[in-house]
Amino acid sequence: MGNAISACFSKYATFSGRATRSEYWFFFLFYILVLFAVAMVDSTANGILMNLTVLVFILPMYAAGSRRMHDVGKSGWYQIIPIYGLILACSESGADNKYGAGA
Fold first, then answer.
1. Burial of 75 (C-beta count, 10 Å sphere; 0-12/13-18/19+)
2. How many C-beta atoms surround the C-beta of residue 72 within 10 A?
């Protein structure tokens, strides 16, 4: 789990390459847990800490999502289609494709 989180933060704005299901979903879980923890601590009316947390995570979340779409052989833009993007994010990794070698 720690490797997936550090891998996503080390590729903070890297939209090329591939990300495995476990890498993507562990990072997503970490993001949700951090949001939950910040929500418990942030008692201000306008949620400044929550907004800052989302700002920190938005770019690596889209980068990891784009790499996840590449792993299943699709363009990173597919992640913005709500249901189809979720289905692709949950699907099994593909073999070698134009985005790189399979794991």
1. exposed
2. 19
